[in-house]
Amino acid sequence: MSRRHTLMGHTLMAAASSLVLLAGAAGAETVAITNARIETMGPAGEIPSGTILIRDGRIQAVGASVSIPADARRVDAKGHIVTPGLVASDTSLGAGEVEGEASSNDFAGATAEMSASFDVSLGINPASMLVPVARVGGVTRALVTPELSGRGEKKGEKLFAGQAAVVDMSGGTDSITKRRAVLVVDVGIEAMEHLGGSHGGVLQLLESSLEEAASYAANKGGYEHGTHRPYRQSKEDLEALLPVIQGKMPLLVGVHRVADIRRTLELGKRLKLKLILDGVEEGWMMAPEIAASGVPVVVDPLANLPRDFESLNARLENAAILQAAGATVVIKGPYVGHYARQVRYNAGNAVAHGMPWPAALAAITATPAKVFGFSDRAGSIEPGRDADLVVWSGDPLEILSVAEHVFVRGTEAPLTSRAQDLAHRYQTPDAALPPAYRN
Amino acid sequence: MKRHHRVVPLVAALALLGACASSAHQDSPAASPADKGKDKPVYAGLDPADDKNPFPSTYHPLPSVATALVGATIFTGTGARIDGGTVVLVDGKIAAVGKDIAVPAGAKVVDAHGKYVTPGIIDAHSHLGVYATPSVWANSDGNEMTDPNTAQVWAEHSVWPQDPGFIRALEGGITTLEILPGSANLFGGRAVILKNVPGRTVQDKKFPGAPYGLKMACGENPKRVYGSKGRTPATRMGNVFGYRKAWIDAQEYRRKWDDYRRKLADYKAGKGDKAPDAPKRDLQMDTLAGVLDGSILVQNHCYRADEMAQMIDISHEFGFHIAMFHHGSEAYKIADILKKEDICVATWGEWWGFKMEAYDGIEENAALLQKAGVCTVIHSDDDILTQHLVQEATIALAAGRRMGIQIDEAEAIKWVTANPAKSIGVLDKTGTLEPGKMGDVVLWSADPFSVYATADQVFIDGALVYDRHDPAAQPKSDFELGQTGPAHPGPQGVGPGRPVLTTSTEQPQ
């Protein structure tokens, strides 16, 4: 049976048309998207018919009446909906090509000791074949999260998977929007499979790891001179935890059942952490409590099976109930980057099960931008933001709708990918020459 | 009686002994020795021809009343779309489908105006029950990874009928499933067709009269699993050797039994003075021989186009037919060959790239196959995806339209209804809305190709087995009892604030 987990080989041939790198912001043209129904996801709300002016890679103006410079290329949206580019949250996109091939996977640290300090952004490959596929699906940014286990790695050593990065889908080497965006940890079965022990043991280890970092921070001199007791974590890992214990860097905690969510919220309060909860399948059972904590949640709206004994009460209405209670909800798709485009279908399914449409669209645009700390760059259509925009053929949450235009940082992306090159190559099987001579 | 091998308490064990004693005659030589050879009786269970169905279906349709779904948009599964149509279910069967259908007197009328009706959705590739949730070790019963050929194992013997996934799938409109063993082995074992009704036993769910399938697997999985154990197959060429060797053995097995039956007939006709010895029954060979005599359908996990072509050659060499390639990520590369060979292809809308053999998987696969005239199926292989199987078909439909292949919904619905029914051998019984077929029907809240649609009512053999708005018609597995948290009604229906689309080009095409 097949499961969705993967990365890609370095010898693969790529069709030229899917390797187009989008020009950086400096070379971007001036574009006016006119006749657009604009879901700004910002303070301007919905603009029923308006124009977005893009210049130097950024949104210069947006509104019902925007003056268009003579040199601007005009893109007629034909009254269709324009949204911010979608955000794939908690994904391996760019850090893995073929999941079954370990050599193509870049989402885990190099050694068993490299834990909180592992920076996933260093291994991200903007030229990944997955990037154009995501882009065609309207995804323009991703929170790329590290995983605990990598290639040939020993288990049983580390707690933190490492630090996630925000990446854009331009395909360029300058596509890292933000390194060290959040620190990733799991306090459930995923961690237990790596560390052994129990839910309680993992939570205890999390607290002691953070307290160790606090001790280190208070005794750096003693540590450097060897006069302080040794720490369990490496210096690099302790350093990486400092912004977390200072409440500056969010801690993205994979947590699933009610009791563990409660313990995690308590821990966050006690240590004054900036938490984000990930998974949260049983969150609906304590939605008011989560909302009152102000801690955002990242949920997969399709997760409705008792996958294991920490998600027995998973249900399709989780996102809707949490949102209705006032929680800040981010919607994610599958972890594996191949399916980043699924994020909008997941938002659609959340609506099918009660979530208001505007909140579901926010949960894949503006909300993740705020929660993961890049709302100054993307996630909404506002002057000054990067011009990550998608013109949709219909309702963006409907599967039958397709992206008609995709802009990443002001540059229009060709709506092609290696997958579509393959489709076109084999569209006419009866040609005289083998398919290898086509495209 | 069947032997009970499971550990039973002492008292129960003693009771079983008594039961065995009373039915001991069944273990004695067959009652009509004349049928079996006078001098050399074949004991019960030793002749594969005696009972091809030793675990017979005990499925009975749930109670039903005559029902008319009135005013719906109907996708019949035969390629037709009927607006403002009516579907009538009587005595568990589809009685009538059409635009101006009289509602029989006394029938329960369901107002389906603004809603959609399709045949029950069929998932031709499911591991529900054999990889049940919770996904703990104890519930992992899908892969007998002890030998590359385990044609002798039957998926139904691993199915846990209480898997909550069955009910989640029902809530998504799934009425029929093919449950397959996993793909670790060249020959994984027998697949079983189930009606998606709650049952105490797997026999309660078995689709009456459905043929068995044989799960075969190409490519990476067998060579990885056995190569890593230092055994054959460790390569793709080892895979092909393994298939061919098994088919040679199966042909030999058939020859032995044919030989025996011929000699027995001669003996009964008075030729020769010695009754022939019956060959030893072999469960592995029984299944393979079932493929060779056409009674068991080959369901072949195979991703790459070149490997599919090799499997086709093997089928020619030994004289059998492959019913369907499953996953078939590269099927679009050989659509013409698959059409010519009349082999169905089951694939996904968007899965790709999780391993090398899926690296060329494309969203356009199903549309390209459909265009080439191949029997095209969208399957799940997944306990979440199966709940949203029409959405998966929608992904494939949208991708096809994006590249200019115009397929309408009435045709695309066949990917999850008529075509899987054909590929698993039950199209004469279900898969379309045609009079006389099983009353397997889904009433959708909206166009099922919309992400906002939910299955509001699901009928199996005319019985309402699930109703989204009636708690009395919402089954729960034993496992779920007592485990639901604080009662929370949750939201009802679709969330507010959806955009009203005004231009025709915005409407889903």
Helix-strand layout with pairing:
The complex is a heterodimer of chains A (439) and B (509).
Chain A: E1 31-39, E2 46-55, E3 58-63, E4 73-76, E5 81-84, E6 86-91, H1 130-136, E7 139-144, E8 160-168, E9 176-186, H2 189-195, H3 199-218, H4 220-224, H5 235-245, E10 251-255, H6 258-271, E11 275-279, H7 287-293, E12 297-299, H8 318-324, E13 329-331, H9 343-352, H10 357-362, H11 366-371, E14 389-392, E15 403-408, E16 411-413, H12 418-425
Parallel strand pairs in A: 1-4, 1-5, 6-7, 9-10, 10-11, 11-12, 12-13
Antiparallel strand pairs in A: 1-2, 2-3, 5-14, 7-8, 8-9, 14-15, 15-16
Helix pairs in contact in A: 3-5, 3-6
Chain B: H1 10-22, H2 33-36, E1 67-75, E2 81-90, E3 93-98, E4 108-111, E5 116-119, E6 121-126, H3 164-171, E7 174-179, E8 187-195, E9 212-217, H4 220-227, H5 236-268, H6 283-292, E10 296-302, H7 305-318, E11 322-327, H8 335-341, E12 344-347, H9 365-371, E13 376-378, H10 389-402, H11 409-412, H12 418-424, E14 441-444, E15 455-460, E16 463-467
Parallel strand pairs in B: 1-4, 1-5, 6-7, 9-10, 10-11, 11-12, 12-13
Antiparallel strand pairs in B: 1-2, 2-3, 5-14, 7-8, 8-9, 14-15, 15-16
Helix pairs in contact in B: 5-6, 5-7, 9-10
